[in-house]
Predict the structure.
Amino acid sequence: MHICLVNCYSLEIEFNRPVLHRDAFENMLDERDTETQARVECSVVFAKNGGDGYRALLYGDEAQEYEHYDNWNVIHIHGVVVKFDIDRQSSKYLCQKLLFFMTTVKILRCFALLFFAQLSLAQTPVFTQDDTLRGSITPQRAWWDLSFYRLNVKINPAEKSISGSNEIHYKVLFPGKVLQIDLQTPLRFERAEQDGHALAVTQQGQNAYFIELTKEQSKGSQHSLTVWYSGIPREARNAPWDGGFSWKDDGNGQPFVATSCQGLGASVWWPCKDHAYDEPDSQAISVTVPMGLTNVSNGRLRGVREHDDGTHTFDWFVTNPINNYGVNVNIAPYTHFADTFQGEKGLLSLDYYVLPKNLEKAKLQFQQAKLTLQAFEHWFGPYPFYEDGYKLVEVPYLGMEHQSSVTYGNRYVNGYLGQDLSGTGWGLKWDFIIIHESGHEWFANNITYRDIADMWVHESFANYSEGLYTEYHFGKEAGAAYIRGTRSSIENRRPIVGIYGVNSRGSGDMYPKGGNMLHTIRQIVDDDEKWRSILRGLNRDFYHQTVYGSQIEAYIIRNSGKKLEKVFDQYLRNTAIPILEYQITKGKLKYRWSNCVEGFDMPVKVSLSPGKFDFIYPTTKWKSIRCTLPNKDDFQVEENFYVKAMRI
Ligand SMILES: [Zn+2]
């Protein structure tokens, strides 16, 4: 059994054997009041499904997102698919009850209890109050829905200091009065105002602030508040992985400055609702820098305003929802060149900002951007941000998928800083950062994780996109060889999926192993056009949305018509690589899966006769099938399946 804290008012319970009994569950909660009723109801559902080893979830902020198929009511919440064996009407009722449940704060006691339960069951990192405030949809976040940010920031490279404000617009989902805004130390939260009134602000932990509004706001109403801040922001230690501000030099004594903050959080440099689940519908980003320097942020440049104090302000505007780690500033004495791409949705503007000394190299290397867009529109559908354009912006670190302003620091060479991550040679045919980071425009910026525990939704698909780019331009076998080649860096030490609710990502295997999982699933689907329609369908049906990984899993299962539940469990939530155990005797192949999750039943292609591969349907029980290979040693598992085989 594995108990995982999702956030302070929701709880994910995952179990195989022994089944956690309803009574045991209720005892753990140890609270009986009106609100507890919702938990009890949920635990009933939980107990019903328990025998099958499903996961159940107690409350989710999007509990109203349910659907009905296959005689089940299905709810996607917090990284799990919860099946309700009750009619649609009662399912709806339950969801409403659960929303009510969300408003209670008593669950914080429950949080502490389960947190320790988790520690006792598995060796997991210890999380702090700061992690929960950062990584969960707290009650102070849940009641309001972001609609717009107007971020103003003045940057002084000489002092490595910043100051500014953020006007935060939101819609009230249900009545609330206290609102959480995040800003990381050492930046100073100066003040907050709404409708001309200064608001009371209380710091929570290191990096969160609870702002008390003058009165409770009613459901459906729209408001804005402004917060001011200043200080010396955290300097990036190893951008983009350990981010913050990179204060560098362009080699000619001019500032070369950039932000990166995935995982760490956008609140490392600007005050915001620092959780991935909620995105503004649009955002204005105004950045003031010394004259002589250009700032490049996301979306389109609407204008430049000059000031008497030797500075000027670049007004950028993003007309689409944007994930907050995608928002960025890049400052240098940039030179600019432009191009266009005739794509599926019309003419897309391409803008490139590079250091003047790299202009000629950039003009050559950035030609790959069009090849990238061409390949990815084929596989994934239209570029998701035509309105905001596409940009490549040179930065003093390797690169990042900043939405509509992909940042680039791959030194104008092919491969990953000149290296082929696959060891096949195909990885040197193209520029890793242009391809990988642009792949994220679909999987990361268009479809964004709601919780960083599901970061595989970004990185597994971006890794896979490298193979698809290779396939589009160099052929199917080249793409497959590239993906197989990246297996060499898989570690299988920790699961790909992280821990929900505490801003915790899973293992780095989310890149090559996740890519190989998708490549394996493509083999199971065994229909290239259907597979492509699933990839395009994901980007259409989850257009500009934040999602849990479970929604992506369910979508692929539903649209492929294949039973992939155990495949996802195996590769995302388990570190073992399945072994096909086999014997060949007297013209018969005996086979089964081992080293796998319970009930693992993935079909796989093997050589049953000379010169071809056929599907077999192994389970963990022995099966047999006719095999006409003249020589036992010729037996092979089709290499595009990421599995092992062992003759016993
Ligand atoms: Zn990536």
Observations:
- The domain at 438-573 is CATH 1.10.390.10 (Neutral Protease; domain 2).
- Residues 436, 440, 459, 462 surround zinc ion (CB under 6 Å).
